[in-house]
Each structure stands twice: as structure tokens, then as C-alpha cells.
Amino acid sequence: MKTVAPPIRKGQRGVTAIEFALVATAFFIFLIGIMEMGRVLFYWNTAAEVTRLGARTAAVCDKDDAVIKAKMVALLPILRTNDINISYYPAGCTAGSCELITVSVAAGTPIATFIPFVPLSLTMPAFTTTLTKESMD
């Protein structure tokens, strides 16, 4: 005996395509949002690592602050040199008398996202790393 598919009602034609379009749109926006948040977290992690590298360079090498800032900006181009602060403790110390080096990145650097239909820009938080003097030679 042959089975026959039930007839499609006239009012239901194309409903599946519309449902798929609605669900797929929401799914892809959600998926792209997840990827964008991963990208933003990548920038935040890179900023933390760049701050750590800047502090390590300042603690080990007797480099000019401009050289350290240039290396940091080269690794994370969204940073501006004005947002990077390098300080030595005690204030006014020399390479032989410094005890601590603090490198910080100010909060507020914007990170634009690429989520469709959602123009969103997140700001990066502040990052600070303090290390003790090692050789500074």
C-alpha cells in the first residue's frame, strides 16, 4: 500500500522558511556576539601581558621610557603612549637606587565590536604591574 503525504494547507506554505530565517538570524547574531566577546577578552589579556612586559623591561634594562612605551604600543596598537604610565620608586631614583617599577595602562581605551545591527564599543579597564628592581643595567 502506498503512503501519501498529507496535503499542505494553503495558509502554511513557506512557514518553515520564515521560521528558519528568524531562528538563523538570532543564532548568527548570538554566535558573532560570542566571537566578538572573545576578541575583546583577547585585547584585555594582551593589554595585561604588554603591561607585564613593560614592567619587566623597565626592571631589567636601563631603557628610556619612550623605548618601553614604543615596544608596548608595537605589541598592542590600540594603545596610545599617553595612556601608558611608567613610575619608579622612590621618586627621582637612579638605576642603582630604584626599588620598584610600576607600569600602568589607563582605563578608557575603546574597543569597537563588529556585532551586526548592534553598534557597541567597550572600554578597556586599567592594568597595572609592579616589579622589584633587578639589574637595571
- Count of DSSP strands: 5
Number of separate helices? 2
Low-confidence stretches: none
β-sheet strand percentage: 15-25%
Task: Give structural notes.
By secondary structure, the protein is of the alpha+beta class. It has 2 helices and 5 strands, in the order H-H-E-E-E-E-E. It has helices at 15-60, 65-75; strands at residues 84-89, 100-105, 110-112, 121-123, 127-132. It has a 3-stranded antiparallel beta sheet with strand order 1-2-5. Helix 1 packs antiparallel against helix 2. The longest helix has 46 residues, at 15-60. The model has no long low-confidence stretch (mean pLDDT 86).
Could you outline the blueprint of secondary structure elements for this entry?
Blueprint (H helix, E strand, L loop, with lengths): L14 H46 L4 H11 L8 E6 L10 E6 L4 E3 L8 E3 L3 E6 L5
Antiparallel strand pairs: 1-2, 2-5, 3-4
